[in-house]
Write the structure tokens for this entry.
Amino acid sequence: MLADFEQSNIDLKYLVNYGYVIKAIKGDELFSETKISSDYISKLESQLTLFVESQKITKPLIQRRNGIIKHLRKILTNKFINSKLSSFGSFESG
């Protein structure tokens, strides 16, 4: 079972391909050494790796974000002389 600070607000429908991860998040999986096989560990590791990789920002997304900033900067500087546009927050950090 997860501690209060570990409770997840993740919508599990987005994790449909990660059955082992869903069990861990919901607290349905009790990790006891006697129960865990190497096959189970291998599948769990694979799903966790795929899940983490899917959370990373991709090069096409970075390019799209930069394109949006470039477009907005062009529009704003044409309408408002000496205006500046800066990205910030998660848009900047990914």
